[in-house]
Design a protein that fits this description.
Blueprint lengths: L2 H13 L2 E7 L5 E6 L7 H18 L5 E4 L4 H16 L5 E9 L5 E5 L5 E5 L7 H12 L3 E10 L10 H9 L3 E6 H10 L8 H11 L2
Parallel strand pairs: 3-4, 3-6, 6-7, 7-8
Antiparallel strand pairs: 1-2, 4-5
């Protein structure tokens, strides 16, 4: 497993962004783990998030000119990502994010930042129902630009509304790739190969994966 993936999992565990117990999801399922990217909420931590997303995007070989962060959670992600692309990879990629409500005064419009053009990658925390992703996709394509990919933090590899994962459902519906910093299998692999107190949760996670996973 790549070093940035291991660092992402380790840091997520250390700060409690990835935690274990019993958590009711929007789907009604009771999950033995929960992930909250919002806990990467300090200067050093958000810098790390930018680095993790940048490493994932660069290694993906997706063609893009601009990065887009859906409001609200995608805004700090896309800002940190653009900064990391510049400082770590010497890539000057403009970023854009949308408003929840259209602004009718000042500069107006539904987006903030660079004018949408060319190829655009959407970055967000996770995919559940995919509502924010679909809204962003519509904004981008209606502007004449082209959405070429989506980058998220964790792919739960869990069934969405059917037999496919939520990420795969979005990928198929929009006909673009969805890539993640890590997926659940990689989290399991990391915990199993790095003995700690977290190992006690593996059996429950695997059982949940067998029932709801893809």
């Amino acid at each position: 497993m790549e070093n940035y993936k291991q660092k992402f999992i380790r840091l997520s565990l250390e700060i409690g962004a990835l935690k274990f117990g019993e958590f009711q999801l929007k789907s009604g399922r009771i999950s033995p783990y929960f992930f909250n990217l919002g806990l990467f909420s300090s200067g050093p931590l958000i810098k790390n998030i930018g680095d993790f997303y940048a490493a994932t995007l660069v290694s993906s070989n997706i063609n893009y000119d601009i990065v887009f962060g859906p409001a609200y959670k995608g805004i700090p992600i896309v800002t940190a990502l653009a900064s990391s692309l510049s400082t770590s990879y010497q890539l000057d990629k403009p970023f854009v994010y949308n408003r929840k409500e259209k602004k009718n005064h000042g500069e107006g419009g539904v987006t903030v930042g660079e004018e949408l053009r060319g190829n655009v990658v959407i970055v967000d925390d996770v995919i559940t129902a995919g509502t924010a992703i679909r809204e962003a996709f519509g904004i981008i394509n209606n502007s004449g630009a082209t959405t070429t990919g989506i980058v998220i933090s964790l792919d739960r590899q869990e069934k969405g509304t059917g037999t496919l994962s939520a990420a795969k459902e979005i990928s198929n519906a929009l006909d673009i790739p969805v890539i993640s910093i890590v997926n659940l299998d990689e989290v399991i692999d990391y915990i199993e190969n790095n003995p700690s107190d977290y190992g006690q949760h593996i059996d429950k996670i695997k059982k949940y994966r067998e029932e709801y996973g893809v």
